[in-house]
Each structure stands twice: as structure tokens, then as C-alpha cells.
Design a protein that fits this description.
5-stranded mixed sheet, D-Maltodextrin-Binding Protein, domain 2, about 40% helix
Length: about 240
């Protein structure tokens, strides 16, 4: 039998209720990081892993040595259900789910730049204007098979299109490619600086890079969640200045 749409909603409601009951039974009223053996599951992309995991693990190792972290990617379609059923405790994403059952907090914002290798031909140009931008070959990072990046959306508004020579899944592979080729990468300024890439300001307005910390509303007052939310926020603050 195939469940009806109404039945699927009932199943989700029951799962949510069971999750709340499980949390109330299994989690203590007070949280002590020194003795807690909790595992926190966080949905992260690779660039966010690079930004915050080193900080998180260093801090946890010193102040909460029995706590563990599991990091993996969860699709946006599955995010709310995963948070509701406690398969996931937190998510970091630029898009906030449209659900009354989740809460969020902006933890990161930066501007986009065009990153390139040292001595790239574009450095010899008198200025980096729109013609110079469109003359480049780009790396585009996305875990989707197809679809535009933010810069593509903005270019399409003025009937322009860039040339993408490589579409790949992970940002952390890009610095080596950028340093060894003439391909350029649209990325956050902090990412370019961290990996020693030169960069130019974009000659068009592109909305900033934003990342939100997302969690289920039923966990909002939980002591362990509050502790971890504060720690994740600190990690992103540290990433902005490093």
C-alpha cells in the first residue's frame, strides 16, 4: 500500500511527538560539558567544515572531552524532518527552511570576490571591469548537477553569462586548481585570504555570502543545545578574523 498525503502527515506528526518524548526522557535538565558523553550531529558543507571544525574540536578537547561531533551533508528537502526526529541536531546553510518548527540565527556573512593565482594575466589589466570578468573561465562549486550560482543569477538580470570550465562539488579542492591554472573562482573574501589566493572585487552587485545556524524549536531551551549553539557561533566569529 502507498500512504496517502494525509497519512504521511500523520506519520510525521507521530514521529515528531515520539522524538519530543525521547528527548524529555533521555536528556537531563542540566548540562555539564565536562562529563557529557553526547554526540552532536551537524549538517555542514565542506567549506563550513573547514571554517569551524578545527575550532570546535580544539575547544571541545579542552572543555568537553567526552563530547563527539558527527558532520555530514543533509539535503534541504530532508532537513526539517531530520531535525524533528533527532537524526540531526544542527544545520549550517545559506537557506532557512520554510517551517514554523525550526529556528535560525545568522552566524556568518562575507562578500564575494573573484579569486585567482598570483601573476594571473588579469592582474596586468588596467581595471577589472565587466568585460574582464566575462573574459575569464570559471570554477563553479555546487553539490547539484545543474543550476545557477548567485553570480549567474545576477548576470542573467542584465542578459549576461559567464563561461564555466569546471563544475565540481567541493570548495576545498579549488585552491590547488586556482594556483596551477588560469581558472578563477567566485568565493568569499575570507576563503581567498585563508588559502593565499589573490582576488579582485566583482564589477557587479552580488548578495553577500550568508550562513545560518538552524535547529529545531523543541531544542531551543535545552542546555546542551544552548552550549553548542554558542560554541558554533564563536567558531564562525573566529573564522571571520582568521
Amino acid at each position: 500500500m502507498v500512504p496517502t498525503h494525509k497519512t504521511e502527515h500523520m506519520i510525521n506528526d507521530v514521529q515528531h511527538a515520539l522524538s519530543l518524548m525521547q528527548k524529555s526522557v533521555n536528556e537531563p535538565d542540566e548540562f555539564d560539558p565536562n562529563t557529557s558523553q553526547r554526540t552532536f550531529r551537524i549538517s555542514l558543507g565542506d567549506i563550513s567544515e573547514g571554517r569551524i571544525l578545527p575550532f570546535l574540536l580544539e575547544r571541545i578537547n579542552k572543555t568537553a572531552p567526552k563530547i563527539a561531533i558527527e558532520s555530514f551533508f543533509t539535503t534541504r528537502e530532508d532537513l526539517v524532518h531530520a531535525l524533528a526526529t533527532n537524526e540531526l541536531n544542527f544545520a549550517i546553510d545559506p537557506v532557512i527552511p520554510r517551517s514554523k518548527d525550526v529556528l535560525s540565527k545568522k552566524v556568518f556573512e562575507d562578500r564575494f570576490v573573484c579569486a585567482h593565482r598570483a601573476n594571473h594575466p588579469l592582474t596586468k589589466l588596467p581595471n577589472f571591469d565587466m568585460d574582464a570578468l566575462l573574459a575569464q573561465k570559471f570554477i563553479n562549486i555546487s553539490n547539484r548537477k545543474r543550476g545557477p550560482a548567485l553570480i549567474d543569477v545576477e548576470l542573467s538580470k542584465i542578459q549576461l553569462q559567464r563561461e564555466v570550465a569546471l563544475r565540481a562539488q567541493h570548495f576545498l579542492v579549488t585552491p590547488e586548481i586556482v594556483r596551477s591554472t588560469d581558472l578563477v573562482l567566485v568565493c568569499s573574501q575570507s576563503f581567498a585570504k585563508k588559502h593565499g589566493l589573490q582576488f579582485e572585487e566583482l564589477p557587479l552587485d552580488v548578495p553577500p555570502v550568508e550562513q545560518y545556524l538552524i535547529w529545531h524549536s523543541s531544542d531551543d531551551n535545552d542546555g546542551s543545545h544552548i552550549w553548542m549553539r554558542e560554541l558554533i557561533t564563536e567558531a564562525f566569529d573566529a573564522a571571520k578574523t582568521s
